[in-house]
Amino acid sequence: MGAIWAVAQTEKGEPKAVSFETIAGAQKLAAALGASLEAVVLGAGVGGAAEKVAARRVDRVRVIDDPKLDPYAPDAYAAALHQAVEAEKPDYVLFPHTYQVRDWVPRLAATLDAGFISDVVDLRADGGEPVFVRQPYQGKLNADCAFTGTGPRLVSFQAGAFLSDDAAKGDSAAEIVAQGVDLSAVEVRTEVLETFQEVENKVDLSRADVIVAVGRGIGKQENLGIVEELAAALGGQLAASRPVCDNEWLPMDRQIGSSGQTVAPRLYMAIGISGAIQHLVGMKNSGTIVAINKDANAPIFSVADYGIVGDLFEIVPALTAKVKETRGT
Amino acid sequence: MKIVVCIKQVPERDARLRIAADGKSVDTAGVATEINESDQYALEAGLRLAEKVGGEVAVLLLGPDAAEEAIRRALAMGAARAIHLNDAAFQGGDATSTAKALAAAARQESPDLVLTGLQSDDAGWSQTGVIVAELLGWPSATLIMEIEQPEGGRIKVKRELEAGWFQWITLPLPAVLTIQSGIYPVRYATLKGIMGAKKKEMKKMGPADVGVDGGLVGTAGRKVELKRLYVPEKTAAAEILPGDAATAAASLVERLQKQAKVL
Known about the structure:
The complex is a heterodimer of chains A (329) and B (263).
Chain A: E1 4-8, E2 10-11, E3 14-15, H1 17-33, E4 37-43, H2 47-54, E5 60-65, H3 74-88, E6 92-96, H4 99-112, E7 115-124, E8 131-134, E9 142-147, E10 153-157, E11 175-178, E12 191-197, E13 210-214, H5 225-234, E14 237-240, H6 242-246, E15 267-271, H7 277-280, E16 288-293, E17 306-309, H8 312-327
Helix pairs in contact in A: 3-4, 5-8
Chain B: E1 2-7, E2 9-11, E3 33-35, H1 37-53, E4 56-62, H2 68-77, E5 81-85, H3 95-109, E6 113-117, H4 128-136, E7 140-147, E8 154-160, E9 165-172, E10 175-179, H5 191-197, E11 202-205, H6 207-210, H7 218-221, E12 224-230, E13 239-240, H8 245-258
Parallel strand pairs in B: 1-4, 1-6, 4-5, 5-11, 6-10, 7-10
Antiparallel strand pairs in B: 2-3, 7-8, 8-9
Helix pairs in contact in B: 2-5, 3-4
């Protein structure tokens, strides 16, 4: 059979940490299928990144180094890996499910006419056809997916699906080979004007001891008062999940999650937040987590220590009253 | 400017989902639906751009008869007309075979811009818009947070990167943009809009109408098969505190004080 490729994402010449998670997932798949494992590093001036990747237990590292791959552009990335896949015919090509991967790998899937199972959280390959587990419906359900037909198979792993520490180190550094591509005919149509960070967060939630976060379940901006009162009674900071900030009910600098701040307070209360993965990655390392939600099946309850299932408009005022009584405020 | 916005009908966020008898799909009977959230933002972005520079927004939806509800809502919000890819051959697709149908329909329209949401709230592949771009031979940009008026055949957009970083890029038209939730506040349909929507064109089309081989779309064209859909086993489940609001609140405060020692 063909090889399994794990494609590393680099940034400023360094492999991103999620690349090692992909290698850990690839090691699991390669072991189950008895296939060889090759890492692929693409970019411009990525020799140093390739050496770091080669320290992991992989059979080979293929480096696609071309000035056209910096800055990142979907046209050039898709063309480069397309050429490499056509030349070497790997069976599986695995990626981290990053924003960058979402931007160019579907294009690669289309040019290769390949199946692409994206945002995978686990895989099983206990004999026969490997099964890739996804979490559709906002993480409410699990789906076992498999490829049909022939051709290269593309997979992306959700951040945290495998741990980068689990990407076993090799006894000696893997062989590094240059994978030649010819990008001279590739027209890069996107032009980067400026890459920047938005103004520094005015509210630094990462220092808060207690955070009361509110989600879509609050319904409308006028309802925020009850949550503000609870936060005040606890001496905590008010925060929110993305939909609340998207609706401009609270400013963006209050947002927790993959596109907002990452926090780990002693106490985190999630009020009317269902717990999509984008939110969970921003708060799951909190000390004690409390979830209040009307849906008993909401994913937030799987990371919470304590939960109350019911109407937040009854529970939150009752909780505020009890906290005030207990703390004598 | 001619803009096509791809929208999808999905179960409402809070909907209780039951697995259908086939063990591979969700039982849609009695489940309330809505336009996929980021597609609502894509539609808002398209309407704003058309209002600013002049032009028309058509919505493109692949789905069964029941998805007409989502189309009517989009028309009530301000889309001029709708293309409904509604045929048994289109059903059951993965991102690839769905994109083939959407791209075929979009090609017939010869728009300047195709907008989609960044991903669907049900399947969540986050692939379809970009595959549509490649099939059309057009450039694309994803996770768009701002769109400026086109100038000299190019459009300037702000992309969201990870960890609080953003990027301004330009790309030539025609192009596909996938829109991030939150780009602009989504308008409500007015009563006038709802009444007006009834008179707008809703074209139902099958594979032959859009010039695509029925074997490339839907179940027949998919490269990924869903083997089993199921409710995940809970790992570290929370202790659920029972009783009415006051009782549950009191048990929680006691636990936060005495067990967790955080109060």
